[in-house]
Amino acid sequence: MCCIVLLASGLGPRIALVFWWxxxxxxxAAISSWVWGLLGFLFLPWTTLMxxxxxxxxxxxxxxxxxxxxxxxxxxxxxxxxxxxAQRMRSY
Length: 92
Hints:
The protein is mainly alpha-helical. It has helices at residues 2-23, 26-30, 34-43, 45-54, 64-90. The protein is 80% helix and 0% strand.
């Protein structure tokens, strides 16, 4: 069961980003360069997803709740990366 949760947390935001890039235009407007989009997709998918959700067309990132969403994305990315070694330690 833990393997399914780890797989979903690792692939879930990436799948959401792919679908949003294919069927929406907000990721292209929110992220200025394809390089940043690719790096975010590969290394920080939760943060990239939360950045796109928080970004507004006129003002960009503005306000407390936008910052909270981005910090939540960073925390989820750290938790995703920290869960793999913790799972390995438990399996011994």
